Amino acid sequence: MAMMDTSAAEIRQLFVGGQASAREITHSCLEVIRQRDGNIKAFLHVDEAGALDQARLVDEKRARGEALGQLAGVPVALKDVLCVRGQPTTCGSKILASFTPPYDAHVVARLRQADAILVGKTNMDEFAMGSSTENSAYHTTRNPWDLERTPGGSSGGSAAAVAAGEVPLAIGSDTGGSIRQPAGLCGIVGMKPSYGRVSRFGLIAYGSSLDQIGPFARNIADAALLLACVAGHDARDSTSVERAVPAYAQMSEQPLRPLTIGVPREFFGAGLDGEVEKAVRAALEVYQGLGATIRDVSLPHTRFAVAAYYLVATAEASSNLARYDGGHFGRRATMFDNLIDMYCRSRGEGFGAEVKRRIMLGTHVLSSGYRDAYYVKALKVRRLIKQDFDEVFNNCDVIIGPTSPTPAFKLGEKVGDPLAMYLSDVYTISANLAGLPGISIPCGFTGSGLPIGLQILAAPFEEQKLLQVARMFERETDWHDRRPG
Amino acid sequence: MSLDVEQIRWIAHLARLELADDEIDGLARDLNAIVSYMDQLQQLNTDGIEPLAHPLDVKNVFREDVPASSLAVDEALASAPDRRGNYFGVPAVLD
């Protein structure tokens, strides 16, 4: 069967209806990965044996007439930031090259319960630190639309795998845009849920007050289906909230009316590519045609967001990454003089350049004499940024703008300039500081054929509204139907 | 305010990171560029603003203290760089 263009919902139907076995679906998926991933390099590990075992179990379940899960027979790829029991879990780092977790992350357990087929782990920037996947210690992933360009990051492998048709669904994590930005650059749907919506248990931590797990898909209904499977409270993550999970998969096909869209003028300033702006403005006209009111709004502290974000994120990272010391798991240096030297050498050998840079920055801004001037200052700015959003959401249902200032940039273009790389996250990071849900959906292409992403943001825990508003646009356009050549 | 090589070495010590000399030079350059970008926050008056450490207003989440099974020793030690019997082996902490 030709899987490449089949949606997750259709695959489940084929399986449940008896037209295809999970084994056939899995073989077909693995075959596409074999054919295409040599060029794309989205995967770090393909778990053929595990996927086929799971397929056999799901086929047996169907044969026994048991109830089948929401993702029965559907292949799903996982960003390598998630712990999978007994499977290599590297987080894109050499320091975890030999690590195999003894437990499953909460979302992994949920996907198994949903009868999904877990086909493997996808490439990422080391410890999710980056915007191009070039910081992976293993290899560079390529954008399926142009192999010379980045798929974005840090969840670039998951985005590229879905865009290339290797899998219908993938999981990513988003600390400052790491789901939405690669989704935008690869022409697919990527969603960051509200902070607290999905349990982070078993997610390798980067910035714990910012990290969220979310879905990649080729259409909004599939993204909603995957979100529905992983969302909800988990006692093992005390920041996952005890709120009922709405039926995301039963998405409304009706346009939201009335609908007021806030368009922040700060998202259309210097640095925004002309073709990206044109596509986003055209998308707003589509919404106007559906009866939406477009309102010019201001998020006045946006220009401070990149600075505040990189202070908070690196401070949290320097603390989170202290656990990689060569003691209990992961790489230990072979030569050292004493315990402290073992820590220093194991970390010096095991971490890549960007991770070291962020640990250093985070350590500096938390250190004695600098903490108030940098870290605490950033937390105050964080509150101002959140208040800006609160104010806009008093009068608007959603905020719409570009996902990224430019389409996919060339591999190597920003590697030597970390600050330029940080600035490419300018539109996505505020949502993490404020804990908002956000989605990137395809809204056009450049003249040279690169996808353009439209970002929609909503107030905390309004994922349903976000999906409904995204679906309104998808129904009216066919950008999501285009596939890379 | 710029960071010199001695400060970079001090931060690396605090972070327990061994760095080669060329890495220290590169970090001095990169961190100075990044920190001077961060310094724009100082333009903003934040007097009287409460720091926001976390987007959710949750604190002190308690649960019942219920006994449950934990990892088996072999599983817990499976990724240990230096397993010694049922323990993690590390260099002596005290001389």
Description:
The complex is a heterodimer of chains A (485) and B (95). Chain A has helices at 8-16, 22-40, 48-63, 106-113, 156-163, 180-186, 220-230, 274-289, 305-320, 339-350, 353-366, 372-395, 418-423, 429-434, 463-476, and strands at residues 43-46, 75-79, 117-122, 169-174, 189-192, 212-217, 260-264, 293-297, 398-402, 438-445, 451-458. Chain A has 15 helices and eleven strands. Helices cover 38% and strands 13% of the residues of chain A. In chain A, helix 2 (22-40) packs antiparallel against helix 3, helix 9 (305-320) crosses helix 11 and helix 9 (305-320) packs across helix 12. Chain A has an eleven-stranded mixed sheet, with helices on both faces. In chain A, strand 2, helix 4 (106-113) and strand 3 form a beta-alpha-beta unit. Chain A has a domain at 8-230: Amidase signature (AS) enzymes, CATH 3.90.1300.10. The longest helix of chain A is centred in the C-terminal third of the chain and has 24 residues, at 372-395. With 485 residues, chain A is an alpha/beta fold. With 95 residues, chain B is mostly helical. Chain B has a domain at 5-43: Histone, subunit A, CATH 1.10.20. Helix content of chain B is 34%, strand content 4%. Chain B is built from three helices and two strands; from the N terminus they run αααββ. Chain B has helices at residues 5-14, 21-38, 73-76; strands at residues 83-84, 87-88. Chain B has a two-stranded antiparallel ribbon with strand order 1-2. The longest helix of chain B is centred in the N-terminal third of the chain and has 18 residues, at 21-38. The two termini of chain B are 40 Å apart. Chains A and B meet through helix 9, helix 10, helix 11, helix 12 and helix 13 of A and helix 1 and helix 2 of B.
